[in-house]
Q: What sequence folds into this?
């Protein structure tokens, strides 16, 4: 209804197509995450969407998830897979050269798609899809740096979800000691990793629910559980401590004495699956996004074609002040224009006609409040400035 995304039978189920408005919404959120990450020293990287089978054999994903992978056989008979996750690719960016301990941590971030061959009956709207966009990041650091790096990620998650408007509970997702075959690495490595996460949670002064059997197969994790406006619980952000991938890929740095030191890998996603996150967010707000997040913040509605030029000048001025404004240049009646804009849940509607043009004002309608009276454009910009905050 909000014209954010669509599905096509020709493209296939579980493969959402994002409209200009939906793409803008995704970009607003991803830009916010990147701003927070950049402040913490992350660098952007870019990776291909496929990889050789051997990469996933080395990481352990092939044995664990081979039935969930989209496979590609080249003309020369080489077997590739559409990437189901990004971490193995990032290990190879780290492995491209030798690192001194002075150069750590190395922090890589990329927002990119992964692909998982879900059965058609498991697909559901945006919440379960075949193409999953992840705001993924991986930190390669020394053991003594892990707590500080995870605290930095926790800070990013806190700022992001405070702004979005979700309350968060914490879940410690641990291995199930009764099923050791499900996990990579020795019990001693797991115990050390789990203890590190428990210490971090304790230092943060929060109460965490422990969930045995919910860990990733390569390491334990802290899952952040969001509660939407209907009180439902969703797993969103995650911090995963991985001591097994560095071992499997022989990732190390050179320590103070010139010897090799095994590094630790931290996986971090802020939104996780952007598709699933948006399915939660759309319902949480019932489509009425706050001003800072709304793809269209202001709709300018001329009473008739005679006032279109004045309306265009209003849109242009709003855009120069970084306000996302649209002009409704259709030939519909004003009443229909207002109804359509309200159905799109646009925060502000500006009606312009003879009186507004002569007085250099706009008639402002605010979502949920209706007509709030005439304003000069500068007065309205001040309202927008307050709404942004």
A:
């Amino acid at each position: 209804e909000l014209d954010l995304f669509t599905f096509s039978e020709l493209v296939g189920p579980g493969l959402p197509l994002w409209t200009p408005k939906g793409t803008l919404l995704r970009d607003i959120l991803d830009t916010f995450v990147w701003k927070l990450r950049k402040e913490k020293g992350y660098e952007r990287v870019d990776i291909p969407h496929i990889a050789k089978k051997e990469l996933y054999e080395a990481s352990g994903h092939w044995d664990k998830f081979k039935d969930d992978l989209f496979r590609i056989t080249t003309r020369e008979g080489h077997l590739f897979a559409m990437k189901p996750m990004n971490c193995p690719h990032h290990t190879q960016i780290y492995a491209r050269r030798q690192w001194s301990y002075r150069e750590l941590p190395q922090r890589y971030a990329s927002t990119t798609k992964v692909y998982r061959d879900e059965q058609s009956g498991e697909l559901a709207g945006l919440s379960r899809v075949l193409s999953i966009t992840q705001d993924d990041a991986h930190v390669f650091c020394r053991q003594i740096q892990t707590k500080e790096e995870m605290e930095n990620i926790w800070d990013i998650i806190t700022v992001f979800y405070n702004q979005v408007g979700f309350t968060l509970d914490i879940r410690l997702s641990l291995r199930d000691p009764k099923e050791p075959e499900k996990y990579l690495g020795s019990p001693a490595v797991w115990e050390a990793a789990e203890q590190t996460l428990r210490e971090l949670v304790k230092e943060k002064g929060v109460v965490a629910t422990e969930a045995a059997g919910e860990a990733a197969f390569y390491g334990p994790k802290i899952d952040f559980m969001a509660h939407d406006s209907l009180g439902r619980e969703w797993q969103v952000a995650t911090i995963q401590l991985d001591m097994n991938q560095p071992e499997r890929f022989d990732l190390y740095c050179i320590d103070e004495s010139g010897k090799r030191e095994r590094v630790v890998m931290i996986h971090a996603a802020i939104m996780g699956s952007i598709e699933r996150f948006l399915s939660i967010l759309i319902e949480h707000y019932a489509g009425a996004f706050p001003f800072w997040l709304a793809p269209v913040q202001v709709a300018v509605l001329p009473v008739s074609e005679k006032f279109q030029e004045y309306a265009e000048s209003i849109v242009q001025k709003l855009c120069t002040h970084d306000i996302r404004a649209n002009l409704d240049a259709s030939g519909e009646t004003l009443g229909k224009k207002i109804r359509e804009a309200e159905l799109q849940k646009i925060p502000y509607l500006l009606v312009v006609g003879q009186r507004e043009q002569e007085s250099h004002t706009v008639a402002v309608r605010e979502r949920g409040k209706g007509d709030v009276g005439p304003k000069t454009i500068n007065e309205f910009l001040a309202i927008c400035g307050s709404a942004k905050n």
